[in-house]
Amino acid sequence: MSGVVAPEGGVLSDEGLDRLFRQARTPRRFGPRPVPPEILTSVYDLAKLGPTSGNCCPGRVVFLTSEGAKARLVPALSPANVALCASAPVVAVVCHDPLFFEMLPRLNEEAGLRDWFAADVGLSDETALRNGTLQGAYLILAARALGLDAAPMSGFDSFLVEDGLLASTGWRANFLIALGYAEDAPAAPRAPRPDFADACRVL
After folding, report:
1. Buried-most residue among 112, 123, 131, 132 (CB within 10 A)?
2. 125 lies in some domain
3. How many domains does the chain have?
4. Domain limits at 44?
5. pTM value surpassing 0.90
6. HSE (CB half, 13 Å, CA atoms) of 150?
7. Which residues form a coiled coil (predicted)?
8. What's the Cα-to-Cα distance from 77 to each of 53, 84, 107, 108, rounded to whole Å?
């Protein structure tokens, strides 16, 4: 396990760490290989197991798989993201439900939790965005773990997405993830990341 300090409970294999992190890259174009519906179910079933505050689980996902559904997304996309989304077999709209607390009585046994969030819009909105974003990150890792390539993006008009694709749900759009199987290996080396000493403090 080169460069990895194993905790007492063990560590993923090098192959697993490569798949999730070290060799994982954001594709610029996807190949034609389809993504079966059952894979999307498996991706969500893994992602939903990640922790959220009080098990609030505000994250929601709309998987766009048909050409018609993806065409409805195009007007909301930044020009640079149109070709990438067009090549992807699936585009996931990562959302959060502002009324997530309505589900709390069956997700968390703590008495009064639903009413606590319902009475404080600022708290519930902050909680929904933070934890919904966290669940979107879990979705990326789950997709990679199941052999998919993932291209998250924020270049889109969230209001157009909500009006065109989410109006019947009341969900709020956070970011997009193009999913599929990369057509080619990335041509450029991975962009640098901040070192531990630059980005972390141990107190």
Report:
1. 132
2. yes
3. 1
4. 33-183
5. yes
6. 27
7. none
8. 31, 10, 35, 37
